[in-house]
Amino acid sequence: MFDAKEFIDNSLKEIKNIVKENRVMSACSGGVDSTVTTFLVHKAVGEKMVAVFIDDGLRREGEPEFVVRTLKKMGAKTKYVDAKKDFFSALAGKTDAEEKRKAFRDTFYKTLGKAAKEEKITFMAQGTIKADVIETVQGIKSQHNVLEQIGINPETYGYKILEPLKELFKPDVRKVARELGLPKEISERMPFPGPALSLRVLGEVTPEKVAIVRKATVIVEEETRDLGTFQNFAVLHNDKATGIKNGKRVYGNIITVRIVESQDAVTAKFSRVPYDTLTRISERITKEIPSVVRCLYDMTDKPPSTIEFE
Ligand code: XMP
What is the pLDDT of residues 297-310, one digit of tens each? Predict the structure, then answer.
């Protein structure tokens, strides 16, 4: 049985031993993994840590404010980096899912490298967990935060990596979050991919398309909050469909809603959501987002699908 308290005690000692008198930066996206990492490092080394939040323009509604607020509450020195333009220009013209991930990762590390230089840090803490390493090494999906394990030397970015959670799976990370007394909106936070909404805009990513999927995401999350499902989200398609708006035939956007049940994201079942809920989601999405003319529900399990579309 995993003992969260024992893990925390050992981890704090280990972080202190590694960091010594050096400075650390902790990259926090607001997800449970990176928030727990940041919390642990801050608890271990205090003022020697600066937390960084990179605003890539791909986060969900209100998320940048939420993350900065969480870090401040933690008492951590916090650096907010507005890199929206850099991410959108790196993603421009990219349509292949893995190419998009690579563009995201490169921009992420360039931005982080710049912040690290400004803060003169020696270590970079990140929330890599066991599943990230396994999936990347096996070539299933290149997680943006996995470097050393696939032969990229992080020192080319100018720092050493500190990954206190890299031996844990998600359920244990949540136990650590609860043991640390983090609020439920963090310890029970729904998994959200590192490259964020860039994976939920199929094909080329533009700020306009991200704005559409962001609005649809708010609606899906609001309407499914009490379902207790594993992941609930919206995806904007690359192609369009015919519909009718204000009595006129238009060629508009298509949104797919995906709601899945899973333990560990390795396999998943589409959720048998009540029709009333799906109806409300569809009506709200097509009414509140003028460009959307069609709303679909994904009824595929993993396998043969994956959870994300890209
Ligand atoms: P798939 O789509 O492979 O997703 O069934 C499994 C879980 O991983 C998340 N996911 C990602 N997380 N970077 C991440 O940090 C990624 O590139 C990425 N791709 C998928 C997905 O949301 C699900 O929870």
Answer: 999 999 999 999 99
Which residues have C-beta atoms less than 6 Å from ligand 1? 101, 141, 143-144, 191, 193-195, 231, 265, 302, 306-308
Predicted TM-score (pTM) above 0.85: yes
Cα–Cα distance for residue pair 212/285, rounded to 1 Å: 10
Per DSSP, which regions of the chain are E strands?
Answer: 24-27, 49-55, 77-82, 123-125, 160-162, 231-245, 248-261, 269-270, 292-297
| Mean pLDDT value of segment 256-273 | 95
What is the rounded distance in angstroms from the CA atom of residue 60 to the CA atom of residue 248?
A: 32
Residue 142: which residues within 8 A CB-CB, separation 6 or more? 98, 101, 102, 105, 136, 150
User: What pLDDT band is residue 158 in, cutting at 50, 70 and 90?
Assistant: confident
Q: Please identify, by atom number, the ligand 1 atom nearest to the C-alpha of residue 306.
A: 5
Q: How confident is the model over 32-73, as pLDDT tens digits? A: 999 999 999 999 999 999 999 999 999 999 999 999 999 999
Q: Compute, in angstroms, the gap from residue 193 CA to the centroid of ligand 1.
A: 5
Atom of ligand 1 nearest to the CA of 145: 15
- Closest residue by Cα to atom 7, ligand 1, is 265
